[in-house]
């Protein structure tokens, strides 16, 4: 399983990543953590990154891309990884696509944790207080001034990734304002759907160059098949039907259309679940 967690500082990416690590036996690759380690060890990369990080700016793309390129090849990443804090810019996302292609790896999902900016300062202040209470050193960039800059970087340079991955039919958005447990549950639902072929890769649309008005997109066909699979088991029992409906909840447009088609095909047996699948998928 290979995932990207997207969200502003304080959105809970780190917390959710740790839970996913335990649940799925994959590694969390946080470029922020790696850079902080490099700063502490005073490596050449650390020396380069130190002031930029302290000021709340972004370390150059080639530096972080280089770090990730090495890291995803390590043996502990063989089962999969969660990218936390990477990519942060469109060029980083493009470089990641290239990298994964070269290594014949694929991404399963990009999960955005959406939060109100208003609560972030509060959350980061709480994180700093908790760290202090544990007797650990507080991050230099967890101050209100630097956080404001980090949020501006997020808005200007990272938010465009939401469109990037949404265009690639990879994005699922989770309400990061919910309690931690609920966010985890929602992420699990999305991942279960990915595993069953309900979202992301199933609905990944082709690059604009490949898309043509004539030829129906291959991926749309795949999406139809996979979404149908997600809905088909619903024939068996009412309970399963509900689950299937949930599994297409976050499916992007093409998958949702496909789900609707599939639902029609099995209409008589589980009208209700088909309706709710369609309704959720439209959201
Ligand atoms: P984080 O722990 O993810 O909040 O990252 C802390 C700091 O490390 C950021 O404010 C940036 O200065 C730097 N950083 C982490 N990841 C990246 C990245 N992908 N691209 C550029 N800078 C990064």
Automatic annotation (TrEMBL):
Keywords: ATP-binding, Cytoplasm, Kinase, Nucleotide biosynthesis, Nucleotide-binding, Transferase. ATP binds at residues 10-15, 127, 178. It catalyses: AMP + ATP = 2 ADP. Residues 30-59 are annotated as: NMP. Pathway: Purine metabolism; AMP biosynthesis via salvage pathway; AMP from ADP: step 1/1. Residues 195-283 are annotated as: Disordered. The keyword Transmembrane helix does not apply. CDD domains: ADK. Pfam families: ADK (PF00406). Residues 257-266 have a biased composition (Low complexity). One of its GO terms (molecular function) is AMP kinase activity. AMP binds at residues 31, 36, 57-59, 85-88, 92, 139, 150. Gene3D superfamilies: P-loop containing nucleotide triphosphate hydrolases. It is found in: Cytoplasm. Its EC number is 2.7.4.3. Catalyzes the reversible transfer of the terminal phosphate group between ATP and AMP. Plays an important role in cellular energy homeostasis and in adenine nucleotide metabolism. Monomer. Consists of three domains, a large central CORE domain and two small peripheral domains, NMPbind and LID, which undergo movements during catalysis. The LID domain closes over the site of phosphoryl transfer upon ATP binding. Assembling and dissambling the active center during each catalytic cycle provides an effective means to prevent ATP hydrolysis. Belongs to the adenylate kinase family. This is Adenylate kinase. It comes from Bradyrhizobium ontarionense. The gene is adk.
